[in-house]
Request: fold
Amino acid sequence: MIIDAHVHFPPGGKCEDLDELVEAAKRYNISKLCMSSLGPSWDYNPSVSAFTAANRQVKFAMDRHPDYIIGFAYVNPLFAQEAMKEFKICIEDFHMCGLKLWVSCRCTEPIIYPLIEMAIEYKVPCLIHSWIKATGNLPGESTPQDVAELARKFPEAKIIMAHMGGDWEIGVKAVKDVKNVLVDTSGTICEAGMIEYAVKVLGANRVVYGSDAPGTDFSSQIWKIRASEISEEEKTLILGGNMERILRMRT
Amino acid sequence: MIIDVNAFLGEWPFRKLSGDVNTLLRIMAKCKIDMALVSSLNAIFYKDCEEANVWLKRILQTSKSLIGICTINPYFPNSIENLHECINEMGMVGVKIHPNYHGYNLEDNSIIDQFFKECSKAKIPIIIPLRIQDERSHHPSSKIPPISASQIISAARKNSSLKIIVCNAKSNEVSQICMKMHEFNNLYIAFSWVQSLNFIEKMVKNVGSNKLLWGSNFPINYVEPMLRQVTESRIDEEDKEKILAENAKKIFSI
Reply:
């Protein structure tokens, strides 16, 4: 079973683009897409109406492709009360299965803590965007070290660090000793050796396949795993086994 | 047939990579790649590229499926002479330039104009990778901005008989360049970077396949994911053949 841990509702919000995404995923025998939406304009600091609208796009996708789309709630933690209320609605009413945090504030900010506590309570994973950029991070963009710090504070939380931290050499090492952090392989970075490195440092059970589609094509992202020089068992874990285990926490 | 128009051999100073001939040949065999146009990775970091080109020529003698592409810094003394040696005496079929790593702009001045005229006169195709590694992941000591699509477009416009092959462009940069492709006949794109969903289908639909090629960016990137973007795209077989080999054969006369 292949589960894509990191997919977005297509920017622009068109239904035909959603269908194109799902159709492409099915061509690659992907069984489930974990989908969040970053809203209509991918605003770095979205308003309450923007992130609630984003989650309704995902609800629409879940209804349109039942049993295929697994929703992840996206909120802006800076709107503390509204973010918690929206997260509750997404989990309890929309039956979403995860929390997605992006770049409105770094994940070491205490304002995020109640959301993490809720995720622990709901037994859902937190997918946290993370990057450490040579070109400079956004003010609210979490580094891999931030993710590690958060995960140490909440050892019961199951955290997926997106894009292997962007600069994967730093990212993987930053979370090496924080066992409740997994990394996803998504994104346009496709550097030789990155998957082997993650498996060597973290073990295959802490690496999950993700694409970041539609920003990337499924072909390059799946073949990142398939072409890497690791065992078939390890590939199976990365492509779906680990994510299946994480999503089963809730049931 | 599959021809990779953007491979390197050599060392990368910031990470241990397997950029040797045996690894490249092994991957080519696995992916059924028949031929690779190869330049020196070391040359990016040398002031005088000549030594790297000589090394490359010696290394490539071990395999007929590897074809040399020389690396030239037009601003380095004697560069035109080195270019002709590489093409005429060493049998290389094109030139790769790295304006961002070698510290010049494509619109700089008469030196680059003269170099392009020389390539054009000798019918030497020129390969320009916009980047080698994603700039967000650069080593702190070597932060090299990518070459802009606008510089490429301007160079193509100014040198209409020079064949320019752009590599390592992200989807937005490919789109930007493709929007202008109808204005010239001399500009080509080699897909050698991770592209967005169904992007290759969309580009073939928009600009046709005559100006598109494929490259791996070996050893920086994984080869097979780059290749699969083309082989698994839903385009006609004829278009795939053009992108994967036929266009390269024509451009580089191989």
The interface with chain A takes residues 15, 17-18, 133-140, 143, 170, 193-200, 218-226, 228-229, 232-233 of chain B (CB under 8 Å). The first strand of chain B starts at residue 3 and ends at 9. Residues 237-252 of chain B form the longest helix (16 residues). DSSP finds ten helices and nine strands in chain B.
